[in-house]
Structure formats: C-alpha cells, structure tokens
Amino acid sequence: MKYRGVVYDVGLDFNDTGEFSVEPFNPALVGHDMRVIANNLHANAVRIEGEEIHRLVTAARLAHSVGLTVFFNPWKMNASIDKTRVYMGEAAQAAEQLRAEGVDIAFVAGCEYSIFSKGIFPGDNFKERGMWFGAYSISWALTITAAAKAKKHMLPVLNVIAATSPSQF
Fold first, then answer.
1. What ranges do the domains of the chain cover?
2. What CA–CA distance (Å, rounded) separates 55 from 27?
3. pLDDT band at 169, cuts 50/70/90?
4. How far are the Cα atoms of 8, 25, 38, 138 from residue 11, in angstroms, in the given order?
5. What is the CB-side half-sphere exposure of residue 87 using CA atoms within 13 A?
6. Which helix (H) or strand (E) holds 5?
7. Rounded to 5 degrees, what angle do the CA atoms 59, 60, 63 make?
8. Ramachandran angles phi, psi of 71, nearest 5°
9. Global pTM?
C-alpha cells in the first residue's frame, strides 16, 4: 500500500447553522496533530476535509511541513449545485497554489456529495436527506429505487464538478 494515513477534519457544518465540527480552529493544534500523525502513527498521508478553504490550506501546509502527502478534500455541506461549482473552483485554485509551493497534493472532489449537498436526494439539510434515504433502506428493492433516482440527479452534478476542478488544479 503506497499511502497510509487518516482523515483529518478542519471543520464541517453538518446542520447548516454556521457551527463547524471543529471550533475553534487552532493552527498550533493542527501542527501538533500533523506531527502525531506522521511520527506516532507512522502515516505518510492525510486526507484533510473541511469547508473553509483557508483552514484546508493551513492544515495542508502543516501536513507538508512534516512530510505528509495531502489529499485535499474541500467539502461544501448543504450547498446547491451552483454554489458547489463556484466553491470547488476556488478550492481547486487554492490546491493548485499549494502544489506550486511544492506540496505533494491530490485534489479530492465530490466526496459523498449525494447525501451531504442539496439537489440529489430530497431535503434541505443532511438530517432530512438522511431520513428520506433511510426510509428507502428498509429493503434492497427500495434501496435500488433510491439509487436510480439519485443517479438521474447525480450525473449532471458530477459533470459540473469534473469540468470546474481540473480547469483550476
């Protein structure tokens, strides 16, 4: 296995309230965590996920400073397709800047988009979409039906993300 690592959360807004899963964001603590990931866990990579691009960039630089490969995972929760397109373009520009600085980086686009963002499954937030999907998961046949419905909406979203990110990164 080429990469051994962990996922590192720099802050996600699961409930669309403006409250992030990591508060406060403390670069000194992130630096400590990256040293532990590299030195104590003997990892050579970290997938950094979060919403605020400046947090992703800060964590990526700190990971790079201890020799970790960075999987840069911008993740805009509860956003529309149009907002996601703009956000992913901005995130790809930031990742490209990091690559220009010498960071060993891969850009992760669209992780679990279907359930965490608007426009694929019904619902205005993660909780509502999860409840909708959960109702379909009581049987295999219903799960297949839900997946077919999601696929119809997902392909245009993936095309938007795929067209936006590579043009910047």
1. 5-168
2. 8
3. low
4. 9, 8, 21, 32
5. 21
6. strand 5-9
7. 85
8. -100, 105
9. 0.83
Confidence at 121, pLDDT banded by 50, 70, 90: confident
Q: Cβ–Cβ contacts within 10 Å for residue 66, how many? A: 16
Q: Contact, 36 vs 24, CB < 8 A? A: no
Is the link from the previous residue into 122 a cis peptide, with omega within 30 of 0? no
- Please give the structure tokens belonging to residue 141: 């046949």
Identify which of 157, 137, 156 has the alpha carbon closest to the alpha carbon of residue 147. 137
The CA distance from 23 to 6, in Å, is 20
Determine the average pLDDT of the residues in 2-26: 93
- pLDDT at 34 exceeding the cut of 90: yes
| Residue 164 pLDDT exceeds 80 | no
Tokens of 106: 């891969």
Task: Please list, in sequence order, all residues whose beta carbon lies within 8 angstroms of the beta carbon of residue 46, skipping any fewer than 6 positions away.
Answer: 5, 6, 7, 8, 34, 37, 63, 68, 69, 70, 71
